[in-house]
Amino acid sequence: MGLVAHAEYELRRAGLFDKDSDYEGMLGEATMRLVKLFAEEGHSGFSAHLAIQLFSKLASFKTLTPLTDNPEEWNDVSGYGSIDHAPMWQNKRQSSCFSNDGGKTYWDVDDKERIIKESIPYEQ
Questions:
Q1: Triad 79, 84, 89: Cα angle to 5°
Q2: CA 10, 11, 12, 16 torsion-angle sign
Q3: H/E element holding 49?
Q4: 94-113: per-residue pLDDT in tens?
Q5: Per-residue model confidence (pLDDT) at position 12
Q6: Looking at residues 24-36, what average pLDDT do you find?
Q7: Helix or strand or coil: residue 21?
Q8: In a domain, 65, yes or no
Q9: Could you tell me if 28 and 52 lie in one domain?
Q10: How far apart are CA 112 and CA 60, in angstroms?
């Protein structure tokens, strides 16, 4: 069974083409379009794995390179509901990342551990 047949079988089995499924079957149809396009690319096993990883990151609005402290990469969101009026910046490249020091350090709200990370210094 090829990739397209496998995907269609699994999506049908899960009921994702059904009108009473989430988004009235549109998720199954959209996923099949992506699977068909991916299958047309003709990747080998290794390149397919790399392409899937890249696509997954990009489609999830994740970055491929580290965040920097470039001011152009950060939006000042201090005025959006901050109770203590503390400075707050949000990263433009990965919106789940926030900073209190203009992007020099940051945390990712999607990271359960909320570890403070250091940005890469921006070089002009």
A1: 45
A2: positive
A3: helix 45-59
A4: 999 999 999 999 999 999 88
A5: 97
A6: 97
A7: coil
A8: no
A9: yes
A10: 17
Q: Helices (H), strands (E): how many in the chain?
A: 3, 5
Rounded CA Rg of the chain: 20
The one-letter code for the residue type at 35 is: V
Residues spanned by the domain of 75: 71-118
Query: What pLDDT, on a 0 to 100 scale, did the predictor assign at position 40?
Result: 95
Residue 23 and residue 40: Cα distance in Å, rounded? 26
Say if residue 53 is in the same domain as residue 19. Answer: yes
Whether residues 54 and 78 fall in one domain: no
Q: What residues contact residue 9 under an 8 Å CB cut-off, 6+ apart? A: 1
pTM more than 0.90: no
Q: Strand 89-91 to strand 117-118: parallel, antiparallel, or no bridges (unpaired)?
A: unpaired
